[in-house]
Amino acid sequence: MSANSSSIRGSRVGSGPMGESDRGFQAEQIVVNYYCLNGHEHSVRYSASIEPEEIPFGLDCPSCGFPSGTDKKNPPQVEKHEPYKTHLAYVKERRTEAEAKELLEEAVSAVRERRIRLAAAASTAN
Q: What is the CATH number of domain 29-69?
């Protein structure tokens, strides 16, 4: 078996001299680290030409979704959320007990009348 020795082995055609570092213009960047309450850390790169007041103080953590901030020792706390309100809870906010009772009676009487009509129509059809 003959050994094939090639001087361009391991490099792509047209790559230029080995170790070429000029691969185009790279814009200057600012790296900002964000920390969440669960100890996750993520970095975001911004253009160096951005104004400092345009860099957000807090972002959502991509790992857990909690809010994250730039202060590692004091990450933002999770705000308390109101529990989910049902439709009935919203109705109770708008209606008094007397109004609710009156509306319930109207709905029940409408259902009773409809059942009576349907029963009468079914008995005449037979």
A: 2.20.28
Contact of 39 with 73, CB cutoff 8 Å: no
pLDDT at 92: 83
The residues spanned by each domain of the chain are 29-69, 87-125
**For residue 35, how many other CB atoms are within 10 A of its CB?**
19
Token pair of 55, please?
Answer: 């860099």
Burial of 42 (0-12, 13-18, 19+ CB in 10 A): middle
Q: Where are the beta strands (DSSP E) in 8-120?
A: 29-36, 41-47, 58-60, 67-69
Which amino acid, 48? A
Q: pLDDT averaged over consecutive 10-residue blocks of the chain (126 residues)?
A: 59 59 76 93 93 91 91 88 83 87 93 94 85
Closest CA to 61 of 90, 39, 84: 39
CA 99 vs. chain centroid, Å, equals 40
